[in-house]
Amino acid sequence: MIERLQALLSEALEELNQAADKKDVEKVRVKYLGKKGPITEVLRGMGKLSAEERPKVGQAANDVRGEIQEKLDEKNQSLEAEELNKQLAGETIDVTLPGDTVKQGSRHPLTAVVEEIEDIFIGLGFSVTEGPEIETDYYNFEALNLPKEHPARDMQDSFFITEDLLLRTQTSPVQARTMEKHEGRGPVKIICPGKVYRRDDDDATHSHQFMQIEGLYVDKNIRMSDLKGILEAFVKKYFGEERTIRLRPSFFPFTEPSVEVDVTCGICGGSGCRMCKQSGWIEVLGAGMVHPKVLEMSGFDPEEYSGFAFGMGVERFALLKYGIDDIRHFYTNDMRFLNQWKQI
Asked: Where are the coiled-coil regions (predicted)?
């Protein structure tokens, strides 16, 4: 039997040398060391041997089994090393090759406009305040001197969620909420950027969702001249020092008196052209002195405090500054359009 064991060892080592991968190694292990393998059969037949032969055959069987197992482990380690070397060779990086181009994003033009306007007003002493886009009827209308059934509500076709909740039609509710938090003590000097929603047909100049920035300054002895000075400083900083503004009487329920603010046309300089419809002026925003009722409903004494408010459409300011002819470009995610804004 010892000769048989030595022959099995030679056969196992020969097959192991020819093994090409770990699967072949596992086949050799099962074939020679498995429960049904020839070495196990030798051990099972030891009962037929004499007492003198058993220890010799048993020792020889253990030696053969141990040597086969050792060679199996060595072969597996060798195959693993080869596999790792192949993997490393395949993953070698040629540092002389040019790198992959990383596409650089950019700010959306509306974001850039909002940030620019914010920076200007921060420089004028205003702080930036935000509020919820889903508003109550009270803050969106009533606190702004628009009681229920007021005809001016028809100017702002609204998306109502319930009888009392709606998507805000303006950012003015932020002003009312902020004044309430001050509990009748000034000053309040804020701008409120954000999205607003109105039921409107989308076209080149209208959208059911757009962005507004509204401003509010409430303190003692605030006058219309303060409003004009702030807006003129803003327009010159945003459009250019050569631009001027004019105020035209208008009506808004939450301001009294109210004005429309025009800026001289950037194309013709005020002489009249197609862009400004030969008037020399382009309307840019609405403004006015805060209505005493609005002050009172927000906790301020209108006999002691006064203030002004203004509101502008971000898209309109972007259209005017960059000569864009269609508001829908801002929302259609056309990369040909967006790629033009990487420098702003």
From this structure: 2-29
